[in-house]
TrEMBL record:
This is Variant surface glycoprotein 1125.531. It is found in: Cell membrane. InterPro entries: Trypano_VSG_A_N_dom, Variant_surf_glycoprt_trypan_C. Residues 395-494 form the Trypanosome variant surface glycoprotein C-terminal domain. It holds the Pfam family Trypan_glycop. One of its GO terms (biological process) is symbiont-mediated evasion of host immune response. Residues 353-401 form a coiled coil. Residues 1-21 form the signal peptide. One of its GO terms (cellular component) is plasma membrane.
């Protein structure tokens, strides 16, 4: 009877289920490597977030400067005013979108990086505890075995990623931590290595931890030491989403991963970078919202129509070579003398001090023009005159009601048929808006008075409507010397836009001038 009982006991012990825990079981090196591998990636989430933040800050600074430079260019070059302001508006919109993301998505990314680093630290401490809780003779006490080999310590590589390091110097890692957490922390991850290996941490709970009831929970319950010793079930007890330490990562990190991975521009906004925005294959998509908003199209135009409009605005070649707008922008120079920079500077290289002076000068000139009351044009521009015909042609080209009515010399008549040109010239409206009277007229053009000619250098430089160039005093390039009596429609449209935009610009300029009032 006794022999039968002993035989049955031996059979049951030898054939015990693989999930049964045994006191002293070691953690297998594969499980340790998985845990440490996740920890390594989690600890680098902060570096990834910091890199995104730095790139965003750099772009915002560059986009703000480029928008200001484009505005200065628009003021100086009436021919390119509309495309310059449209690009400035596009950059401003991009900057606003990224700023919005900073207060929402980036804030979430920072919090997620903190959670990931916390989880990584918890994992490190637990794995290193198992690593260091061993006797110099493995058979006398070993808590991480090389896979399931008895009395054989794990290779150093298995736990290398769990060692302490300087996270402020860590390189970013682009892993989607949500996917990684779900993969590593599952009930199928086996923990048990060499069995009955004299590991003190997996001894009976009462012996190892002086806890007299229940199992011992480690890492927020991911790992359980059975009351009698060993890893309960032999595997991880919970998934990542079932623990507080990993749940935020395992359930929501993909959205943060997508934000950190997106293709937001990070390069400096130079003339070359602007040229990429207005390439034939991308301009329709990139400027669709901006152009629809700028011209108030209703219904909004689709990408193909926007591409056609942009092609005309920016003079975009079909072969994708450099646009006429970018060529002009690269050649543009502004005379903004300072103590250190007395010569004209490239517009796209101007700093904020120079931009403030350039815009202040241009706005002063614009204000003078806006405040001048024009003469009564109704007699001089009698119907049938050459000047009247030119003005009528200008208005007839405007097909949209909003664009027509926004023009200071035109009015939209909804009762007219398309054949009769709904957008008409209105002399009274032109006069009330202060359109200047032509001094002399020849074939529908005018010659403006050269008010700067003959001035000495000092007097020339002090006059906001003059510029000193080639040792002569000339009218500023902002003044158009050969134009229609009523000025071109594009310039008039720009002036109207700038007058509405001026309140914002004045505040910005005053702010900049205040910062640099000691110069």
């Amino acid at each position: 009877m006794l022999r039968t009982s002993l035989t049955l006991f031996c059979v049951l012990y030898i054939t015990r289920p693989g999930t049964e825990a045994a006191a002293g079981d070691a953690l297998n090196s594969d499980a340790a490597a998985k845990l440490c591998g996740f920890s390594d990636k989690a600890k680098k989430a902060a570096a990834r977030t910091a890199a995104k933040l730095a790139n965003t800050a750099s772009y915002l600074k560059s986009a703000q400067a480029a928008a200001a430079r484009l505005t200065a260019f628009a003021m100086a070059e009436a021919t390119w005013a509309e495309p310059a302001i449209i690009l400035a508006a596009y950059l401003t919109g991009e900057a606003e979108r990224q700023l919005t993301d900073l207060s929402s998505k980036m804030a979430t990314a920072v919090r997620s990086a903190g959670q990931a680093a916390y989880a990584g630290g918890r994992i490190d401490e637990l794995v290193l505890l198992f690593k260091h809780a061993q006797h110099s003779t493995p058979s006398s006490g070993l808590c991480i075995s090389k896979q399931k080999t008895a009395d054989t310590a794990a290779d150093a590589e298995a736990t290398e990623s769990c060692t302490a390091g300087d996270l402020t110097a860590a390189a970013p890692d682009a892993t989607n931590l949500q996917e990684a957490a779900i993969q590593v922390f599952s009930a199928s991850t086996a923990l048990t290595g060499a069995t009955a290996n004299s590991c003190a941490l997996t001894a009976a709970v009462l012996t190892a931890y002086k806890k007299d009831t229940g199992n011992m929970l480690l890492l927020d319950g991911l790992i359980e030491i059975a009351n009698g010793g060993g890893f309960d079930t032999g595997n991880l007890k919970k998934t990542a989403a079932e623990t507080n330490v990993l749940k935020p990562i395992a359930t929501t990190y993909t959205a943060t991963h997508d934000y950190l991975s997106n293709g937001d521009p990070t390069d400096e906004v130079t003339a070359e970078a602007l040229d990429k925005i207005i390439k034939p294959d991308v301009v329709g998509a990139k400027l669709k919202d901006t152009i629809n908003s700028f011209y108030q199209y209703n219904p909004a135009k689709e990408e193909n129509d926007i591409k056609k409009i942009a092609t005309e605005l920016f003079k975009i070649p079909a072969d994708g070579s450099e646009t006429g707008f970018i060529k002009a922008l690269k050649k543009a120079k502004a005379r903004v003398p300072t103590r250190d920079q007395p010569e004209p500077q490239d517009t796209m290289q101007l700093d904020y001090q120079q931009l403030a002076r350039e815009e202040a000068k241009a706005l002063q000139s614009l204000n003078k023009k806006a405040n001048k009351k024009g003469p009564d044009c109704s007699n001089e521009l009698s119907e049938g005159s050459e000047a009247y015909k030119k003005a009528e042609e200008t208005c007839n080209k405007l097909k949209e009601a909003a664009a027509c009515n926004a023009n200071p010399i035109c009015i939209y008549n909804t009762t007219e048929s398309e054949e009769n040109k709904k957008c008409k010239f209105d002399a009274k409206k032109a006069t009330s808006n202060g359109v200047p009277k032509a001094e002399t007229q020849t074939g529908g053009t005018e010659k403006t008075t050269e008010k700067c000619k003959g001035k000495l250098e000092d007097a020339c430089k002090k006059d906001t409507e003059c510029k000193w160039e080639e040792n002569k005093c000339k009218d500023s390039s902002f003044l158009i010397t050969n134009k229609l009596p009523l000025i071109s429609a594009s310039f008039i449209g720009f002036v109207a836009f700038k007058l509405n935009f001026m309140k914002f610009m004045k505040l910005a300029i005053l702010r900049e001038l205040y910062k640099y009032d000691n110069i």
